[in-house]
Amino acid sequence: MEYDLKVLKINKNKIEQLNELSIYTVKDLVQHYPYRFEEMLETPLHDESKVIIEAQLIDEPKIFYKGRFSRLTFHVNYHEEPLTITIFNRHFLKKNMQVGMMLTIIGKYSASKKAITASDLKLKNLKEISGITPVYSLKEGLTQKSFQGYVNKALNFYKGHIANIIPLYLCQKYHLIDKEDALFKIHQPQTRSDVISALRYLKYEEFFKFQMTMQYIKQNRTQNIGISKLIDKEKVTHFIEKLPFQLTDDQKKVIDDILIDLTSQKLMYRFVQGDVGSGKTVVAAISLYANYLAGYQGAMMAPTEILALQHYQSLKKMFKKYKINIALLTGHLSQKEKNDIYQQLENGQIDIIIGTHALFQEKVQYNQLGLVITDEQHRFGVEQRKALKDKGNKVDFLVMTATPIPRTLAISLYGDMDVSTIKTLPNGRKKVITKFIKGTSMRPILKDLKDYLLKGGQCYVVCPLVNESEAITGRNASDISKAMAQYFKGQYEVGLVHGQMSDEEKNKIMNAFKENKIQILVSTTVIEVGVDVSNANMMVIYNAERFGLSQLHQLRGRVGRSKEQGYCYLLSEATHSEQKERLEFLENHHDGFEVSEYDLKIRGPGDLLGQKQSGLPTFMIGDIFKDYHILEITRKDAFEAMNQHQDDEKIIKLLSEIKNNLIKNNEYID
Ligand SMILES: Nc1ncnc2c1ncn2[C@@H]1O[C@H](COP(=O)(O)OP(=O)(O)OP(=O)(O)O)[C@@H](O)[C@H]1O
């Protein structure tokens, strides 16, 4: 049951402050878990470090005042040695301090002065205060102590009514404690092992629920009969044979998977991940062609206008000799142009439509939509997916992403989809020569750059900032482009592209670069995903330490996309050894899956995909990277639960809760 915070008799003003932390119900309060724990354990005296000690007061404390500030100084006996203790603004403690009493002192130790500058002082011995204290992430107005008080109220309110969600056989298998016990232990731990056993239960429960949701969605979908499409496979084979290159084995395998999906009764719901430059566009094109041959319209949605335009141009080129009507719909067409496209989509004149979010606006009606492909799953939420699916009756759905994640993680996270992976790069593709160069000057690589330009190549220069910033240090694209334009005046054209420009401006510059009217393109990370200019094979990245490793791999993937040798220079003043190691790792590793695995190991959450923006599910207590073995185990357990324990009382209850949640959050897709 969901209870409003009012039942806990918390005052209105405090309830508002709790609301700011997205805490609205008693359950929310109990689920606002500590983000760390502080342990009060005696530490040895190490010079210039934080120490916690227990010692005996040996003299009367003295108070000194200076303006509004006070200083309390006294001496203690610590293992037969006197130490001087100073603490600021605690003059009021003096009245309760008697010579001979035991004190606990927390502060910074100076060996030369034999003194501690204390940050906290307790008039008790350590034993009385030792233990483990949860620390919560809070907002202004709430103290740790008051928050702990509210949580305690919430726990007592629920006590005796907290039921286990996990079925008994799983609790027994993993020796999980009860849910009620886990909640008490996470908020009121006595020992470290309390925290460990509480976390084990709570993480397992959170991931298990997630995996059950995935299984539920998947099962629901499989029961849903799709349209078995009739595809002239000979024509598909003929199209493949006419391509200017041989497909890689992975491309062939994915295409086979997709063709099976399209022709089967099952609705396709497939997630294709491939390394940068592994050739996903042609896979999309073949799928769209197969769908077209079966008599259906296809839609391909890209996250940016630059990419939509690029896909449109590549598809137009690939289908030049075919009578397929391909159109581009973006937000920047005139109203008349848009209306024409709407009409042609509705009456079935357009076979394949490429575009951005504009593709699923309400006005857009399809005649016979059969396949939707979205590029970069991470930027499209459930809402958009639903909107697009609503455009057609039983539409097959393909999601492509260029941000590789280890397959096990992909299966665990996208458990409601079938996952295909394109790992191999096209034949003859050379590894991008990657060099980490210390500093932020282009001087050390200028000769390489000039030689390369002289041979007719084009180059990307990536900067972390658009303009000069006072807050952040780093090279900015505007200044760099001006400096380069000046330097190469009369020899080469320099262009500038960044996210603050209008789409029209961006497209103009990108097209000029594609047509080699611009030889040096200075940019921010707007070129990160998907841009494909095969004559541009050199990239210089300023302040490389400022980018995530997977992001650098994405950026580097813009070069070396043909048989030409690609070069990527990582300019960085990285001082931390960890930063250097990461850049050196990129020098020696070229496989996106390896890069993401390394990221996963050393950096944990955040860096791999930028979790928040990525559309990856967020968890309250489990960490998809650090705890991914639990994610994996729960996937198997959820599968088993769905198929072998569907009569278990707890499973029945959980599934009904899952369904209600999906409906409530408007995420229920039939
Ligand atoms: N089997 C192949 N053999 C040779 N070249 C190929 C093959 N498949 C694709 N290509 C070419 O490789 C280049 C990269 O392909 P594509 O743009 O589809 O990559 P991608 O997987 O979308 O990569 P990214 O995610 O980095 O954009 C294109 O120029 C494409 O024509």
TrEMBL record:
Keywords: ATP-binding, DNA damage, DNA recombination, DNA repair, DNA-binding, Helicase, Hydrolase, Isomerase, Nucleotide-binding. The keyword DNA damage applies. Pfam families: DEAD, Helicase_C, RecG_dom3_C, RecG_wedge. It comes from the Bacteria. The keyword Cell cycle does not apply. One of its GO terms (biological process) is DNA repair. Its EC number is 5.6.2.4. GO terms for molecular function: 3'-5' DNA helicase activity; ATP binding; ATP hydrolysis activity; DNA binding. Residues 261-422 form the Helicase ATP-binding domain. Belongs to the helicase family. RecG subfamily. Plays a critical role in recombination and DNA repair. Helps process Holliday junction intermediates to mature products by catalyzing branch migration. Has replication fork regression activity, unwinds stalled or blocked replication forks to make a HJ that can be resolved. Has a DNA unwinding activity characteristic of a DNA helicase with 3'-5' polarity. This is ATP-dependent DNA helicase RecG. It comes from Faecalibacillus intestinalis.
